[in-house]
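Thread: ATP-binding cassette domain-containing protein, structure

OP (GT): Posting the sequence first so everyone is looking at the same thing. Length is 108 residues per the record. Can we get the structure tokens written out before standup tomorrow? I want them in the notebook alongside the other entries.
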Amino acid sequence: MLRLLDVKKYYKKNKAVDGISFEIQKGEIFGLVGANGAGKSTTISMLTTMSKPDSGDILYQGKSIVKNPKLIREHLGYVPQDIALYLSLSGRDNLVFWGNAYHVPKKY
């Protein structure tokens, strides 16, 4: 289970995410929908441990990924809006490269 608890993120004085809380159960398919500027990308950035919330917590299986980001990196899939592939590498080589960058076990 993945759980956000009153998560907030600011960029200088601007509120990007203002106290979001929700839960995703094992086996659920999840989508985050909202208007431009609503904080979707910032929320995803925090879920993927690319940025830290200013307050609140994010729990994966009851443990904080804010304090220990490695807990979730092997278990989370994310397709970014912008292309993050190296065109000089094959599809498989890109998967291996990014898998190694995030310490995904070779068994996958």
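GT: Both are above now. Quick notes for whoever picks this up: The chain has three helices and four strands. The first strand starts at residue 2 and ends at 11.
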